[in-house]
């Protein structure tokens, strides 16, 4: 068995006036070994983990202040072949990850060379991780991680 994977990755970073900036990167991937959801063959060959993704960050960094807003996107991808059901693998059934988008925020202030105050907010969109079988309405897992907020102080001694 053999397969081809083609892809392109690109990154762009630009500093803007007044301490602002932007970073964007993306990866496009494609394989000629895809799972055929409409086939009843039990010996299909497909590559897992092949999927496109993109990230974008707007940032501010000036003096003692830093702040970032980042969005991460992951396209649909085949995670594995062989669903776990009832404690064991279930044949040659696919498990897909649905497209996923997450928005994060981070800010910190450098009080002096020894003390830093920070605030992080992750998954602001409260995105849900969704896996499914052959078709999107065959839900296998819905995982709601929720939003995560953290605030703290870092000290160097």
TrEMBL record:
It is found in: Cell outer membrane. Gene3D superfamilies: TonB-dependent receptor, beta-barrel domain (2.40.170.20). InterPro entries: Beta-barrel_TonB_sf (IPR036942), TonB_rcpt_CS (IPR010917). PROSITE patterns: TONB_DEPENDENT_REC_2 (PS01156). The keyword Lipoprotein does not apply. GO terms for cellular component: cell outer membrane. Keywords: Cell outer membrane, Membrane, Receptor. Transmembrane segments: none annotated. This is TonB-dependent receptor. It comes from mine drainage metagenome.
